[in-house]
Amino acid sequence: xxxxxxxxxxxxxxxxxxxxxxxxxxxxxxxxxxxxxxxxxxxxxxxxxxxxxxxxxxxxxxxxxxxxxxxxxxxxxxxxxxxxxxxxxxxxxxxxxxxxxxxxxxxxxxxxxxxxxxxxxxxxxxxxxxxxxxxxxxxxxxxxxxxxxxxxxxxxxxxxxxxxxxxxxxxxxxxxxxxxxxxxxxxxxxxxxxxxxxxxxxxxxxxxxxxxxxxxxxxxxxxxxxxxxxxxxxxxxxxxxxxxxxxxxxxxxxxxxxxxxxxxxxxxxxxxxxxxxxxxxxxxxxxxxxxxxxxxxxxxxxxxxxxxxxxxxxxxxxxxxxxxxxxxxxxxxxxxxxxxxxxxxxxxxxxxxxxxxxxxxxxxxxxxxxxxxxxxxxxxxxxxxxxxxxxxxxxxxxxxxxxxxxxxxxxxxxxxxxxxxxxxxxxxxxxxxxxxxxxxxxxxxxxxxxxxxxxxxxxxxxxxxxxxxxxxxxxxxxxxxxxxxxxxxxxxxxxxxxxxxxxxxxxxxxxxxxxxxxxxxxxxxxxxxxxxxxxxxxxxxxxxxxxxxxxxxxxxxxxxxxxxxxxxxxxxxxxxxxxxxxxx
Length: 584
Fold this sequence. Notes:
By secondary structure, this protein is mainly β. The chain has one domain: Porin. The chain contains 7 helices and 24 strands. The longest helix is centred in the N-terminal third of the chain and has 15 residues, at 2-16. The chain starts with a helix and ends in a 9-residue tail after the last strand.
């Protein structure tokens, strides 16, 4: 009888669950459309917090429908893009779905945006093919670079209570040499991907798999469990958590109530390829993250970030998850001290202020370690250099313990009165030794708790000890054509003679020149300038023809010596795929 009562309670709870949505793909251009709508309206969406990406499809659709009726000065192209966005999400919009004039066998492409779609009161299913076929010709290189991706994307919903998503793709590629050098730093892993094997002459073969389920526990609390990537912030880059690294397994809890969004994420990461003395391949590590975002005013959003990295097996045993970290509402630094201070804790902030319609500013602050006494030393040194003080009060400055990063940016829509022209620019400054950790067991191996996954950074793709300018511009002269430009210029202090100067996040920060005089951009300074101009034409929903030109220059800053030069021009066909970019 008790079991029967329990079953009745569980069924009742199931029936009372609110509707649940899956999320937009990581890096989806739809995020750019939603960002533009927020800018044009001069206020943040009430349905979601844009610093916590990827965004929920249901919330994005509701915001798009609201923007379509309330946002002033939407152009005909904006309304076309909004209409197409809503057509892609029939499960959440009241807008009638367009029917194809010539469906295939009456079942396939019955709707322009889906290869196969089934929708009823209690079930929704969308299935689409995925294709990305690109070829690049690089100056001075005989063989073509290429990317050949074939796959499938499936999303659906059961009883409007449980959502599910799957993306599977097989890939073969031959990348330019600057990407291959990045792969060497990743121990062979393709940026954003995992294990690879050789293919053809200088190529690689790799498999992409993402998927998850999502459901609502209550009206305000939702769960997501599966394999994917995440992004924190409003910028082009993220210093806190980016979607650069490979997918990872996670459990995410989203708690929303009116003006705040609180997110817990428990992630299982991999320290690839072999780290431990015991020969453990794919050594496990864990990342636990809290993010709390506030809608202070309709045009000001402020968020707080906290992360702890748990990793580092000894020579015999693998280290597991410490269950203390499953507490969803505690300050992780307190737990870290409680369990012996073996793990890496990062805290930070996100903010965005929409000054007026079409103009906003944003930023991030990242802190790995911070000591007030070290700041006093730095201020003392600065006053002496400026001539405001005759002699120093302290013997040292520029402590290695000042591990922090700063991002400042600006974004615009319809700038200079030019419709459909959006620009975004930012500066990123990251001190030495940020994201590094130490070898907990003194085994002489690379630290397991570095801020990384699958030998790839979880934040900035280049690492630390760097200063960067990043710029993105997009212009849509017609509804199906987008022209975009990207420009990245950064200088990084790299290691010299095996000495750790703080740029390589996989090194042990105890292996450093000294406790003080660790200046910004110390070491051998390498400068990189990367520019890309591209155009995409959509000739049917989800089907694109792409063209691009990419130029990259890498120099030694002190001597001006040219180290590497890349000039490429390419063409491609893309179907229901997020374009793969290598901006580093």
